[in-house]
Amino acid sequence: MTQIIAAASALISERGFWGVSVQDVANACGITDAGVLHHVGTKEGLLVAVLEHRDDADLAVLSQMLGIPVSALREGGELSTSLRDFCAALVARNAQQPEIVRLYSVLNAESLDPQHPAHAYFVAREKWATELFASAAAGTSDPARVARQIFAGMDGLQLHWLRTMDFDLVHEWAALAESIIRPFEVSTSTNGHSA
């Protein structure tokens, strides 16, 4: 199954979901299309397996990097880390795996079509991710707005990075994050009231 997911991930990141057949994945693995379908059921099942594998792997690494249980990342709620640290860990993880970021970006764009088999997945994932960012932004004046801007900024910067690969993603993210987060930070005066 690991070989099937790896082959499907590579092919989908190059061609998009619609440009890949089950036979393409089977050929890449040296097995029959029936062998692929035995593990995933359908082409749509293959896509779900690829996306779930990516999520599981990323959450496990983020959990280790931040010292947060995977369950806290999956379920949301208040995170025991700063927004800057959370985002920095996520970008550092993505900088190590451009092929996976490319896969996610291609599928995310394709799934804007409500008929795409990953449409519901990406709608739910965006809602979950935005809520997770908002949880990490709890100390700001407008956590929901910060979360949306962080999410949009991160996606946009990663797309530019994937296209050119001519800058340090982690370094550029730190500068962009500062410009997004700082205006929303709540400063406290000596009397304890927000400034």
Describe the structure.
- It holds the Pfam family TetR_N.
- InterPro entries: Homeodomain-like_sf, HTH-type_TetR-like_transc_reg, HTH_TetR, Tet_transcr_reg_TetR-rel_C_sf.
- Keywords: DNA-binding, Transcription, Transcription regulation.
- GO terms for molecular function: DNA-binding transcription factor activity; transcription cis-regulatory region binding.
- The protein has 195 residues and is mainly alpha-helical.
- The chain contains ten helices and no strands.
- 71% of the residues lie in helices and 0% in strands.
In CATH terms, what is the architecture?
Orthogonal Bundle
In CATH, what is the class?
Mainly Alpha
CATH fold-level topology: Tetracycline Repressor, domain 2
What percent of the residues sit in helical stretches (DSSP H or I)?
A: over 70%
Question: What is the number of strand segments?
Answer: 0
Oligomeric status:
single chain
Globally, the shape reads: elongated
The low-confidence parts are 188-195
Order of helices and strands: HHHHHHHHHH
Q: First CA to last CA: what distance?
A: 55 Å
Radius of gyration: 19 Å
Q: Major sheet, described briefly?
A: none
Mean of pLDDT:
87
The fraction of residues in strands falls at under 5%
**How many domain modules?**
1
Tell me the name of the CATH homologous superfamily.
Tetracycline Repressor, domain 2
Structural class: mainly alpha
List keywords for this structure.
195 residues; 71% helix; single chain; disordered C terminus; Tetracycline Repressor, domain 2; mainly alpha
